[in-house]
Specification:
By secondary structure, the chain is α+β, with helices and mostly antiparallel strands. It has 3 helices and 3 strands, in the order E-H-H-E-E-H. Strand 2 and strand 3 form a beta hairpin. The N and C termini lie far apart (about 60 Å). About 0% of the residues are buried.
Length: about 80
Amino acid sequence: MQTVNIHEAKTHLSRLVEQAARGESFVIAKAGKPLVKVTALDVPAAGQTRRLGFLTGEISIPDDFDRMGSEEIEQFFGDNA
């Protein structure tokens, strides 16, 4: 894995980012001490983004969901809760 100093990274940032995006990670160092590793992100390709509703049919919400725990809340806070 390639190691570059901060000055070189600033000078050649565009080239280094393109390199990392191709899967060639690199390390940025300061005074020879490694500080950070730059690597490509694993993001879904266009059209593969998960959308709301992807768990449809796999989970269920009780009909009384908005009233769950109301008795306990009433005990803690009285009738004004």
